[in-house]
Structure formats: structure tokens, C-alpha cells
TrEMBL record, chains A, B:
GO terms for molecular function: alkylglycerone-phosphate synthase activity. The keyword Flavoprotein applies. It is an enzyme of class 2 (transferase). This is Alkyldihydroxyacetonephosphate synthase. Keywords: FAD, Flavoprotein, Oxidoreductase, Transferase. Residues 103-284 form the FAD-binding PCMH-type domain.
């Protein structure tokens, strides 16, 4: 097959890489307590692919031939595994469905265009043959942006952008790089780093997500405090639309009417296929430090993040876990690393002597970048704020560990799923004044949902992405499912959390986008009139609804 | 009449305030040299309003009655002066037409709604009666966003937002203020300052422009380096549309599909009437300093602005004038103030001794804000960069003067127009690497245009609004007109400059918007496909083209 890399069909990452708990003595007791599962029990592994009944391709020979003519025989395929790999993203809903071989509608053909002109020909062919185009980047989406609608009767083409993976040009004086949309995070950073540059965009999904995917879903990375989110990073965009090419030129800022750039951002394929972008890049910083801190409790942690944001400081990362996520972090420490074992015991004893309640302690990471002088200055300004809130500096050790493990969390879902628990994440942003009630409302909603489904459940949270107007709260939740209809149970929990976001003045998603999963809250979030406006964009570009139909806005 | 304040009908500012040169000894020789005009000659003042033949209102009694029913008799008017005041903005094209009583189509009625529900009723009435709505803020627009199309046969309603002028609420913990759209800059800042807050948005037009106008045109203020431009400042928006209200909730950042917020920004009334916004506000800084610097020449000045931007520094203002604008600044110094008279002579002697060519010196202002410690730190970081580029620190004196005079420039146009010269401004932004060729291309284009019209002309420039990807170049140009068809002459010059922007990879406007004046370059800027997308938004919201028709996109 092609040399485009994909994750394993049934889970996160590549075959052979996964989460292990054997070297983490605190993990088993933590999980029993949280969701009631014994991690030592025999895991139920995913079924073998040979057991999956894959629906046959519904694409006619004429369409396949026409696609083959555009991309060449090795880059247009109806192979079963390829089509299943391109059916879903990696939400817990997706993982459950894959393991249960629930495949009501899968792509009929997967194509790998080599360049923009091939993309244009494929899109035009799709419109001419009334087929559906679903662009595919790294396949890491967790809100249902990639799956064909179950009711789709037209041929479905999954357009994999993996061959468009080059950094084409760096305008070094401006700090702007022209990059093809299909490049995966590590590959892109490697190409940039080789010339001394970085984009500074590191979402949790970094390892298996692409530039085009980030733009199409309004992604945000861990260092967004410094580098901005993808909407701020992206200056120019090229988008293949039916019969034409939309070009947003790389302009720092512009007053040219409603923003076309900001219409493409978050468009999830509904306004065309993003082929290339001009993005802001920065010199790899002379120095980079991530420092760990502890707070007495969530209230003082939130207040500190607020005050740092309102100060003159400019850190690259501001992140703090609530007490439950802090306990989770400690539970995943290796016996031989970080603040674990003897060190952890000594630390806890020290905190106790200071009168801290160990069940309320919150772990925080703050990042600093730039010249050595700037790192020192920022640490000092932030330090003054932290002092007022009684934070304890843990030094660079935990930060280094955080940096090493920061892309590993998604593996945990597969591990838990093997053992009968469903876990996923839901994140939002809200003004600073609304964060505390938002947090309380989400916890209440989740716990009510666990009661409703009658299962033991867990929820934890961290704050990340500080902005002037507010911050992102990121919730991770898990529950033991009944083994009968885990998706129905998941829907109860997830819906309760999302509804609590909207009811608390927060958004349906800060950086995971809408897809199918969140589309029922879209009108509540952007108002009926806002939805009409967005629908107007879709209709203008794609009157035949050939471009990833049904995503973002529910069919109305 | 109403208590809503307006500028004089024929020019900038209120009656009795204008530019005077008598106390500025350097000004007369400068102007003779630049555009060949003797400023001591007898000015030709604007005609008296009684001499203006004002077209009668074309609004029927039924429409007037219905509007009166909504706003009350004193707030719906067909008064001639009111209608002329609401016909144009304040571009040189507008001023020339007003002085020549060129009024092919003026509003038929001016209404002053008291609140959002009145705006909704007016908009719905306009659609029901197939009338045209043109929202009016401070009337400072210079790209033709406010004028009715000359061919308009339907009744034209100018909707003056002046009565919606209150700061409704400040969420102090978040730093977000809810403000009515019709508030003028100074009134808004006064209300905010009274509670210790500032929005930090100070465009040149500040004195006579409104929050709603800033949002509708994508305005940018002098301190955008710190506070962001209006697109970054604005988090929530309420927009009255035909039959409905669009609400963008105040969310710090969101992944909810194409941005509705960024569609309303810059929409110039074509997507409805902006009634209210939630904007970022900041505590009035403890300290604020604007320091003047001199550079040897434009190249070193540009390089320094670039290097400051790429450093770890975070100044609030970065601005530098080219040598010609620097000479202009010196020429407008009062004999008794600033770096003028003896001081100026001593300074020039000093520069000469250092081997500087006085014809190439560039004047710069850099602003610092925040705590005293932050101001000191930023000055030091910026100082290190400036040192490398050989800049000379002039201290706070010139900066204080700049701060006092920063809103005065527009008065100069009326002064020159009284004396036979036409002056206006054109601004853009481009990546850092393109600024030098852009600058050269614009100068070449303007000078070629002056040759073409056979008149003596002048052009000068400053850089302001530094961003990671580039900066704004702001050009001011003036020429002696022939007294026969100054608008035709202006069109030759202005078009040459705008075309040079587009040809040089710059945008048609960084912060003055599109209107009618720039719409011929809109497709070249955002691409044909981009224009189709924007037209799709307009059509979805306003199928009858009742909302400020013809603006942004040329009728196609």
C-alpha cells in the first residue's frame, strides 16, 4: 500500500505501543477507587480484523477508474482495512464501534492525491458524479467529523492528505512558513527544526494529527499562551472548492470585510479541502523551562492562574490540575521517576506539616521560553504572583516529566476499554468569572449522569490555555460500562457535560470542534441566526452538499 | 433636535476647532516645498449650508409615520442638515463633494433608536417596506461605507446609533465590558476610566468614531501591539438582522465551526446592525510612557521595528515615520514646544557631527505600559535592540507631545482643502519581508500618478501596528488639485497606491475597511472564491439587499 502512516484501526497510536501500569504502583488502587475496575484482570483485547464484517464498497467501477486516473493505481483503493481506518476518528464512541464492528456506512474508496491539482480534480469529479468527499488528515478527531452519515446513499470518497507533507518554504525574515496540509505534527516540526524554526503548536493529538486537520477543527496547542491557537497561527490558506481555488493570502491583519480566513478555520471540510497554509513560525527558543508547582486547593489555583494572566507576565504554558487529576497524575508516576516513591512521601509529609489537606492539593505546570534573560524575568514575575497564592515550587523535575509524557494520555483509553471502562474528554472555555460555577456544574451534571446510568464514574479537570477573557477547562471522565450498550451510556454522560457547558455560559468546545457529536449544541452556542449565517456559507460553496455533509450543523 | 453630537457637515471635528499654522514657523516653507501651496494665501472657506441644494426626502409619509411610531417624533427626521450630515463619511472624496454640494443620493430620513428593540423594529420595517438601512456611528469612515448608492430608488433610512451610548456592565474579574454600540470613543473611555478600566483602543478617529463603527470596519488603535485590534478585543456581539437577533456569546476562544464573530467584524452593516458588544477591558495601567527615538534612516528604522517584534519585548506602541513624515512632524512643531527651535537646532548639529544625513532621519515612538517594573524592563529589552540599530533616545518630551496631538491630523485636510490641496491616507499591512519593496512600489506609483495628473504631489509614510507576521504601513498623500475635477485626480492617485498594495502582496486595508472606495480590489485581495463565500453570507442574511447594499463587494 501507500507509505502514508496511520494509527492502528482499533485504537490510538501504532501497533505495539500502549499504556502499561506494571511499573506504576499507584495506578491499580487509584483505578479501583475511581471506576471500580481491577486493572490486573485479564484484558479483553479488540477483535481480530479478520472477524470484522466490512461492508463492500458501493463505488462504481467508473468512479474508481476516474479516481485512479487522477492519482495512479496505488493511490486509489477499496481495500477493507484502508476503508475501515478512514471511517472514524478516535473518540471513545469510535473505539467502541470499531471493537464491536459497528460500521453502518464506511467510505467506498480511499484516495491519496499527490498535490493540489489532484485534489482539485478529485473534488470536481465528486461534484460531477454526486459523490461525497470527506477529507482525512491524521484521523485523530474525537467529535465525529470524519464518518460518513449512516444514511448516505451516494458514493463516499475519503480523501487522505498524507502525501502532501512538505514544508515548502520559510520566509525567515517574516517568520512565516508555507506548509502542505497533510503533514503530521512530528514530521512538520522536524522539517522546521532542521532549519532552526518551530510552529509551537502542540495539541494532545500532535503525534497523529495534521496541519490541515488543526485548521479544519480550530485546534489549540499546549503552548497557546505564547504561540496562539491555530486560528492565530494561520495567516494564509489555500482551499480547493468545487470548480475553484480559494486563496487567503498571508497578511498579518486585514480589514477586508467578513473574514474568509476565519470562515475556513473550523470548517471541517464543509467549505472545501485545505491543501496548504502559511503559518507563523518562531526561532527555536534559546531556553525552555517547565516548572511544577503545587497549590493548596482548586480555588487558590484558579485565582493564581487568573492573576498571572492579569499581570505583566507572559508565560508559554499555564496549566493546573484539580485535586482529582492531581491524584491521577501521582498514580501514574513510575516508581523510579519524578515526584514518586520516597520523594513523594517526603513532600506529602511536608505539606501535612504546613496544614495542607492532601486530598485537595493541585498540581500545576507553568512554562517559560525565550532568551535566558526572559525566562529568568518571567519566572520572577510569575513567582511573585504564585507567592501570594501560597504555591510551592517543585522545580524542573516534574515539568520535564510532564513534557515527556504529554502526548501519552490517549493510550489510556484503549487500556481501560480492554478492561471494561469507557473514558473520554470534553473541553470548553469561559470567562474567568464563570470558571468556578462552570466547574461545579459540570461535576454535578456528570455525577447525576453516573447515577442515571447506574454505573461508577469519575471526572477530573485541568485548566489550560489562559486568555485575557478567560480560560479553557478540560475534563476527563470515565465510567465502568454495562457491556451491553456502552455508547448509550456514554451519550448520557457526555450530553450532561456538554449541556452543563452551554448552561454555564461556556462554549461547546474550545478546540475539539463540532462534527456530529457536538452539532446538537451548535445553535445554542452560536444562536439560530448565527447558524443561518454559517449555513449560508455552506450553501454558497457547496449547493449539492458533496463536502462532508452533516457536520457542524445538524441537518435542518 | 436630538442631543446626539455630530461633526460639522463639511469637515472634521466640531465648528470652531481646526488646524492653525501661525504658531508653527516650519509649516509654511514645508508645504510650499511639498505641494507648492502658500499657506498664507487667503483660504477659500466651505460654502454656507444655505447655498446647498439638498435633494428632497423620497420617503413617503407612511414610512415616516411608522418610524416615528417606533422612535418618537423628535427622533425621526427629514431635516436637510441632518440628512446631509448622514450622507457621507470624512474621506477627502466626501469633503470635496460636500463643499461642491455634490449630493446625488442622500438618506431620506434619519432615525435615532433608543434601544435594541427599536433597532429590530426599524430593520424589520425596512425589509417590509423594501427600504434601505445604513447604520451610522460617528460618521468618520473614509472608504464610502456610509453613502447611499447613487442609483438607489428605494427609501434610504440612516440609522444613527448615537443614543445607544452606555457602558452597561463590567465583569471585573474577567476583564470584559458590555457596551452599547453607538458610544463615541471619549464617552466610552470616560465611563470605563471612572471605574478604573480602559479598552486601550485608540484609532486616529477615536474622538468621532464609535464602538459599533470600529467593529463594523475592523478598526485598529495606536496601542494595538498591546491591546490587539478590535477583532481581538471584541468577544461578544449582538446584531439585529431581518426578523431575528444574532448573538455571539462572550467566549474567550471557541471551536464551533466557521467564526460567526469574525463574519460580523468588518461587515459594514451588510449583515445587520450591531447594537452591543462584550469587549476586553484592562485596568488603567499604573505607568505609561511613550519615548521618542531617532534613526539614521528608514532601513535601520524598519530593521529595528522588526527586531523588537522578534525579541522577547512587549511594547504597547511601535511606530516610526519615514524621513518625509519626520520632516513633516518637525514642521508642525510649535515654536515654543517639543524638539523645536533651539533644541531642534542643537539636536541637528549633534546628528551632523555623528555623520547623519538630516534628510534621512526617521522619528519613532515606542510605548511602554504596565507596572513600573514592567515599564523599566520593557524599556531595557527594547533599548538593547535599538542600540544595535544606532537609535538615539529623545526621552519622554516628544512622546508626550505625540500623545497630545495624536488625534489632530484629520483637521489638516480641511485646512489644505481651504487652500487648494487634496490630502488623504491609505494604509495596508504586509509580511515583514515585503515592507521595503512595498514602500518603494507605493512611492513609485504615487509619483507616477502625480506625473500623470500633472500636479505637484507629496507622499509620506509611517510603520505602526507591529505583528508577528508583519506590520502596517500608513501612507499620507497630498497634491495641489486643478480646481476643476479634484475627485478624478484623487482617483488616479489613490488607485495607483491601492494597486501597488495588491501587487506587492499587501492588503487593500489594514484597518480602514472596504466600503465603496476599496471594493474594486476586494476580489484581488480575497480571491474570487473568497468573494463568493462572503456574498453567500450577505445573501443568506439579506436576500432583499436592504442592508447597506453595494458595500464591500462590487455589485456583480
Amino acid at each position: 500500500m501507500t507509505d502514508v502512516k496511520h494509527m492502528k484501526w482499533w485504537g490510538w497510536g501504532v501497533e505495539g505501543v500502549g499504556f502499561h501500569h506494571e511499573d506504576k504502583p499507584g495506578f491499580a488502587p487509584f483505578v479501583v477507587d475511581a471506576v471500580g475496575i481491577d486493572v490486573w484482570r485479564e484484558p479483553v483485547p479488540p477483535i481480530d480484523f479478520s472477524e470484522v464484517a466490512v461492508p463492500p464498497s458501493q463505488a462504481g467501477a467508473e468512479l474508481i477508474d476516474a479516481l485512479t486516473l487522477i492519482v495512479g493505481p496505488e493511490y486509489a483503493t477499496v481495500d477493507d482495512l484502508e476503508r475501515v481506518v478512514h471511517t472514524y476518528g478516535k473518540s471513545i464512541r469510535d473505539l467502541i464501534r470499531l471493537r464491536a464492528a459497528i460500521l453502518p456506512r464506511i467510505p467506498d474508496v480511499v484516495v491519496y492525491p499527490a498535490d493540489e491539482s489532484a485534489v482539485q480534480r478529485i473534488v470536481d469529479l465528486a461534484v460531477a458524479t454526486n459523490s461525497v468527499i470527506i477529507p482525512f488528515g491524521g484521523g485523530s478527531n474525537i467529535v465525529g467529523s470524519l464518518e460518513p452519515l449512516p444514511t448516505e446513499t451516494r458514493p463516499v470518497i475519503s480523501l487522505d492528505m498524507g502525501r502532501l507533507s512538505r514544508v515548502l518554504e520559510i520566509d525567515e525574515y517574516s517568520g512565516l512558513a508555507t506548509i502542505q496540509a497533510g503533514v503530521l505534527g512530528p514530521d512538520m516540526e522536524e522539517q522546521l527544526n532542521a532549519r532552526g524554526w518551530t510552529m509551537g503548536h502542540f495539541p494532545d493529538s500532535f503525534t497523529y494529527s495534521t496541519l490541515g486537520g488543526w485548521i479544519a477543527t480550530r485546534s489549540s496547542g499546549m503552548q497557546s499562551d505564547k504561540y496562539g491557537d491555530i486560528a492565530e497561527i494561520t495567516k494564509g490558506i489555500r482551499v480547493v472548492q468545487p470548480g475553484k481555488l480559494l486563496v487567503v493570502r498571508p497578511i498579518p491583519s486585514s480589514a477586508t470585510g467578513p473574514s474568509v480566513r476565519e470562515a475556513i478555520l473550523g470548517s471541517e471540510g464543509r467549505l472545501g479541502v485545505i491543501t496548504e497554509a502559511v503559518v507563523q513560525v518562531h526561532r527555536v527558543p534559546e531556553k525552555r523551562e517547565v516548572i511544577g508547582y503545587l497549590f493548596r486547593d482548586w480555588d487558590s489555583a484558579l485565582a493564581a492562574m487568573h492573576d498571572i494572566n492579569k499581570s505583566d507576565a507572559a508565560p508559554s504554558i499555564t496549566r493546573v490540575s484539580d485535586a482529582r487529576e492531581t491524584a491521577f497524575s501521582f498514580s501514574t508516576s513510575k516508581a523510579s521517576h519524578g515526584i514518586s516513591g520516597q520523594v513523594q512521601k517526603a513532600l506529602f509529609a511536608f505539606l501535612k506539616r504546613r496544614g495542607w489537606n492532601l486530598d485537595e492539593v493541585c498540581l500545576s505546570f507553568i512554562g517559560y521560553e525565550g532568551s535566558s534573560a526572559n525566562v529568568a524575568h518571567q519566572k520572577s514575575v510569575v513567582g511573585d504572583v504564585l507567592k501570594k497564592h501560597g504555591a510551592i515550587n517543585l522545580g524542573k523535575g516534574p515539568g520535564t516529566l510532564y513534557d515527556q509524557k504529554k502526548f501519552d494520555t490517549p493510550y489510556l483509553r484503549d487500556f481501560l476499554l480492554d478492561r471494561g471502562a469507557a473514558a473520554d474528554v470534553s473541553e470548553t472555555s469561559a470567562p474567568w468569572s464563570k470558571l468556578k460555577p462552570l466547574y461545579d456544574n459540570v461535576f454535578a451534571a456528570a455525577n447525576k449522569a453516573y447515577d442515571e446510568i447506574g454505573m461508577k464514574g469519575w471526572i477530573m479537570c485541568h485548566l489550560s490555555h489562559s486568555m485575557h477573557a478567560g480560560a479553557c477547562l478540560y475534563f476527563t471522565f470515565a465510567f465502568t460500562h454495562d457491556g451491553v450498550d456502552p455508547i448509550a451510556q456514554y451519550d448520557v454522560v457526555k450530553s450532561a457535560i456538554q449541556q452543563a457547558f452551554i448552561d454555564s455560559g461556556a462554549t461547546l468546545s474550545h478546540h475539539h470542534s463540532v462534527g456530529l457529536e457536538h452539532s446538537q449544541w451548535e445553535v445554542a452556542d452560536i444562536s439560530e441566526a448565527g447558524a443561518d449565517l454559517v449555513q449560508g456559507m455552506f450553501t454558497a460553496v457547496d449547493p449539492g452538499e458533496n463536502l462532508n455533509p452533516g457536520k457542524i450543523l445538524p441537518t435542518r
